[in-house]
Amino acid sequence: MMPINDRNKGKGNKLAGLIKSTLATRLSIALIFIVILSSIATLLAGQHWMERYNEEVAQKLNASIAMYITNEYELVNKEGDAPNLEALRRLSHQAMIINPIAEVYLLDTKGNVIAHALPDPVKAAKVSLEPIKAFIKNPQILPIHGTDPRDPTRNQIFSAAEIRNQQNLQGYLYVVLGSKLHSEISNTTKDSQSRSMAVISIIMIGIIVTLTGLVIFRMLIKPLRSLSQQIQTFSCNQLRSDQKGTPTIQPASKLSSCDGISHKDEIEQLEDVFNEMSNQIEQQFKLIKETDHTRRELIANISHDLRTPLSSVQGYLETLIIKDRSLNESERTLFLKKAMNSSNRLCQLIGELFELSKLDSPSAEPNFESFSLIELAYDTLQELEIDLTNKGINYEVRTAFNNLQVYADISLIQRVFENLIRNAITYTPENGIIILDFDTTSGSAIDAIKISISDSGAGIHKQDLPYIFDRFYRDPNNSREGRNSTGLGLAIVKRILELHNSPITVESIIDKGTRFEFSLPNAT
Ligand SMILES: Nc1ncnc2c1ncn2[C@@H]1O[C@H](COP(=O)(O)OP(=O)(O)OP(=O)(O)O)[C@@H](O)[C@H]1O
Ligand SMILES: [Mg+2]
Fold first, then answer.
1. Which of 129, 198, 249, 289 lies 20 to 30 angstroms, CA to CA, from 9?
2. What's the gap between Cα 419 and its chain centre?
3. How far is the CA of 474 from the centre of ligand 1 (A)?
4. Which ligand is nearest to the CA of 473?
5. How far, CA to CA in Å, does 62 sit from each of 19, 90, 129, 140?
């Protein structure tokens, strides 16, 4: 059965998958938004232009109404100072029957309403003459809107004609083509079938455009998505292999994209991968530069260290050849011994370099086995017995256990003991003491054995401590004393313990002593 936590995690992943923000999803949302907006805009614009078109048609059809009425009816008396109300009433009645959208007004020359035949009083006593004059002058450019005396807040299309007696302008006949009845009918037809059909058509077009757009988007984005997936797989594989190689904790953001719960679209993912890769390239360039620098330094050190004993051997041999006759027996033996020492040193250096390069090679794998650590320590001490006795140095092996089995490479760990104890002998004055301490790590389960090697020697300066494990690092005083030192001993120790995943630490007090400590996996 799946644990509750895992089930919740599964649900979370599903949800994340559903709302996964791919580029296609984002573009689809944008497309749907654009289609909805443009549909609304088309609907509103269509309505506006349709109304304008209707007005133009209505005004064109009824353009000559006013002219016709003024020709047929005598609406003002001969003097031109009073309207013919009876004629107006009749006219209005007939107009309402023939054309219900028309409302007839009689205006004086200044635009004042002097008579009308509406049952209710009008709200505007005066109308603007400008549109009326424009209509009379050029009745082709339509629609023209004029004041509606019934509702001055609205402008309406109209027909108009001048009323003249002989040549004298007596007023205007103003026929508004948007009567109360017209507005009422127009309002009731707003939801007419043709209007609903227009809305349905626009919605259908919107859906078709959206679906087509989505299909086209998916087709266009397909290669980009596959490229992004390939790059992501490549970078995730690299990340995992990096994690196997170096046990460092990767940032969560990097791992989440590899677990498939990224909320980023393809372009953002490509951007991330590009940034990651450029960072890696930058780091690798840095590493190459550093490695190149270290390599140059190493070559310089190696050539220097090889040349010194070699030229010393050459020097003694040359002296022996040149001064052969003048040298007595003891001098000859001394020179040969010195040449021998230098050649031994050369061999030691070449041997250590060879050992280090073997440990450095990627195929270097410790040969793990279970063995007794204390036995190995005694064996090593026995090998170094002569050096210990020569310097009168005592040693102690401290442990509360009789048998401590570790799981490690026996010959490599022996090399670690050898190098550390040899250093302790070298840097401890006569009659000093070396202590080897074996302890278990605290806790109920003993999973590691702690090993420390301390001496009562000269100690190491605080400022030198960070460098003692570097290759070719030696205490500058050593060379002065002419010791057979290569500066590779601790570098070999560190590399061997790295292969056992065990860090080594050092503590030192000047003139008191030095203590090295590391641990190995318990095999008991
Ligand atoms: N126990 C110690 N006490 C004091 N100084 C030490 C001790 N162990 C190491 N050092 C310092 O660290 C330096 C580096 O040690 P390392 O063993 O790498 O080189 P080395 O002893 O000089 O030469 P070799 O490669 O022959 O061992 C030494 O030169 C010495 O100055
Ligand atoms: Mg050493």
1. 249
2. 49
3. 6
4. 1
5. 61, 19, 19, 12
Tell me if the domain spanning 365-521 has CATH number 3.40.980.10: no
Residues 442 and 458 sit within 8 Å (Cβ to Cβ): no
Q: Where are the domains of the chain?
A: 62-191, 265-364, 365-521
CA-nearest residue for atom 22, ligand 1, is: 487
- Residue 24's Cβ-side half-sphere holds a number of Cα atoms within 13 Å equal to 17
Q: 317: pLDDT confidence band, cut at 50, 70 and 90? A: very high
Position 93 confidence tier, pLDDT thresholds 50, 70, 90: confident
Backbone phi, then psi, for 10, in 5-degree steps? -60, -45
**Pairing between β-strand 394-399 and β-strand 433-440 as defined by DSSP bridges:** parallel
CB distance 210 to 31 below 8 Å = yes
In 3D space, the residue among 109, 100, 65, 71 whose CA is nearest the CA of residue 87 turns out to be 71
The CATH number of domain 62-191, selected from 3.40.50.720, 3.30.450.20, 3.30.1020.10, 3.40.190.10: 3.30.450.20
Q: How confident is the model at residue 19 (pLDDT cuts 50, 70, 90)?
A: very low
Whole-angstrom CA distances from 136 to 64, 105, 107, 141 are 10, 16, 14, 11
* Nearest one of 274, 276, 271 to 255, comparing CA atoms: 276
- 515 SS3 class: strand
- Conformational region of residue 371, where left means phi above 0, alpha means psi within -120 to 50, and beta covers everything else: beta
Nearest ligand 1 atom to alpha carbon 458? 4
How large is the average pLDDT for residues 342-355?
Answer: 89
Probe target for ligand 1 pocket from 347, 474, 484, 497, with the most ligand atoms within 8 Å of CB: 474
Q: What beta strand segments (E) does 88-139 contain?
A: 103-107, 113-116
List beta partners, residue 369: 408
Report DSSP state, residue 126.
Answer: B
**d(C-alpha 218, C-alpha 24), whole Å:** 6
Other CB atoms within 10 Å distance of the CB of residue 340: 12
Distance from residue 488's CA to the centre of ligand 2 (Å): 7
- 369: helix, coil or strand? strand
For domain 265-364, say whether CATH 1.10.10.200 is its number. Answer: no
Mean pLDDT across 392-400: 94
The string of pLDDT tens digits covering residues 190-205 is: 556 777 888 888 889 8
CB neighbours of residue 198 within 10 Å: 16
Report which secondary-structure segment, H or E, holds 53: helix 23-61
How large is the average pLDDT for residues 208-234? 83
Return the number of other C-beta atoms located less than 10 Å from residue 26's C-beta.
15
Ligand nearest to the CA of residue 461, numbered in listed order: 1
Q: From the alpha carbon of 475, which atom of ligand 1 is closest?
A: 31
